[in-house]
Structure formats: structure tokens, C-alpha cells
Amino acid sequence: IERAAQKGIPIEDIIIDPLVLTVGSDSKAALVTLQTIELLRREFGVNINLGASNVSFGLPDRHTANQTFLAMSIAAGATCSITDPIKLGQSVRAADLLLGKDDYAMRYIKYFRAAEKLKEAEAVK
């Protein structure tokens, strides 16, 4: 972070990716990642990127675990994620809504209206 600052890179352009390990091999892996995200945001104010789906590697029903972990990561301070936006978009919108990052639920409503239009268009085909 210091070196980036010396090179003139503003703090908001710095992105740190804490390693996400699977809870299939370490039951505390998700908790450690969430604590790391909180620490990085609190101490350094940098953006946090993560491969959220790594948390469920080797487990059944990965989608549910990934959705839940992504929402928890956002609450902890994660700002971006390497993930499938179609599959996890609902969780991102819901997390933003519930964390007070979506005034009057405008983005949440817009997202679901657009999704509904897509479903209707697919049904017509």
C-alpha cells in the first residue's frame, strides 16, 4: 500500500484479494476470510476483491453456500467479487439493500423488474 501511494496510486484504486479457502477442508476458513476483510477495510480502507465461490469447493449445493458467503463478505466490507453475476446478482442486491446501501430499494426493485422482463421474454420464445 505504501509503495502504491509512493507511485501516486490513490487508495481507492488499490484492490486486495484475501485468499478464500474452502470450508470443506478447514471449517474456520470462511470466518478467517471475513475477519481479514474487516481488518483490511478498517485499517487500510482499500477495496477488497475475492473469489467467493472458493469457499464451497468440494461441497454439495455450492450455490447456497456461495450466496450466503458473498452476502456475509459484503457485510464485512468486500467491494468486488470474482463470481457469476447472473447466479449471485440477487444476493448482491439483497445485501446492498439490507446494509443500507440502496436508498428506498431502488436498485433492488430495478434489478428484479429487469429479471422479470427477461423471464417473460424467454417464455414468449
Give structural notes.
The protein is mainly α and about 120 residues long. It is built from five helices and three strands; from the N terminus they run αβαβαβαα. The protein has a three-stranded parallel β-sheet, with helices on one face.
Give a short overview.
The protein has a single domain, classed as TIM Barrel, CATH 3.20.20.
Topology:
Blueprint: H1 2-6, E1 15-16, H2 29-44, E2 47-50, H3 62-76, E3 80-81, H4 85-98, H5 106-124
Parallel strand pairs: 1-2, 2-3
Helix pairs in contact: 2-3, 3-4, 4-5
Q: What structural category characterises the helix and strand content?
A: mainly alpha
> Which stretches of 5+ consecutive residues score pLDDT under 50?
none
Give the count of helical stretches. Answer: 5
**What is the percentage of strand-forming residues?**
5-15%
Largest sheet: 3 strands, parallel
> Could you say which overall geometry the principal axes of the C-alpha atoms support?
globular
